[in-house]
Amino acid sequence: MSDTGATITVRLIKSFDYRTFKNVVLHNVDLENTTVADLKGIVGERIQTTTGFKPYLNNNFDTMKTYTKAFGSKTTNLIINLDHDEWILDDAKSLASQGIENETEISYFNRALYEQYKQNPEVKW
Question: Member of which family (predicted)?
Fold first, then answer.
């Protein structure tokens, strides 16, 4: 798969405590020329225009972080990897320059809620 036709999954995390998230699967993403800011715009448009995302319309998504890459190891936390804060993506850089490749999963969330969850990572029911 070339860097101009990658498939990536963006995990929209609504609640860390209740493990509420929904995936947005994007096809034919140009990893070399798409910045993280561009990706946020694409996902935001998808939330606005696709049925089934109404509960996610008013969430303040502001941060993206690599969750897992294809054939890579997954975290034991089912909602987000709490370690590796260096995997938080820089809005100004291209996806490829930050190690995003075909079939990567990216978490998209509110940074303040993430920091709060890291302090006390309990799951509620």
Answer: Belongs to the UPF0538 family.
Q: What are the structure tokens assigned to 95, written together?
A: 């996806």
| Alpha carbon 81 to chain centroid, angstroms | 11
Tokens 């054939």 locate to: 71
DSSP assignment string, 44-57: HHHHHHSTT-GGGT
Q: How far is CA 103 from CA 1, 58, 117, in A?
A: 10, 27, 27
* Helix (H), strand (E) counts: the chain: 2, 4
Domains recognised in the chain with CATH numbers: 6-119 (3.10.20.90)
Give residue for tokens 């800011």: 37
pTM value? 0.90
Q: What is the DSSP letter of 16?
A: T
Which strands form 63-68's sheet, in the order they lie side by side? 20-29, 6-15, 105-109, 63-68
pLDDT average per 10 residues of sequence, the chain (125 residues): 77 92 96 97 95 91 90 66 88 96 95 91 74
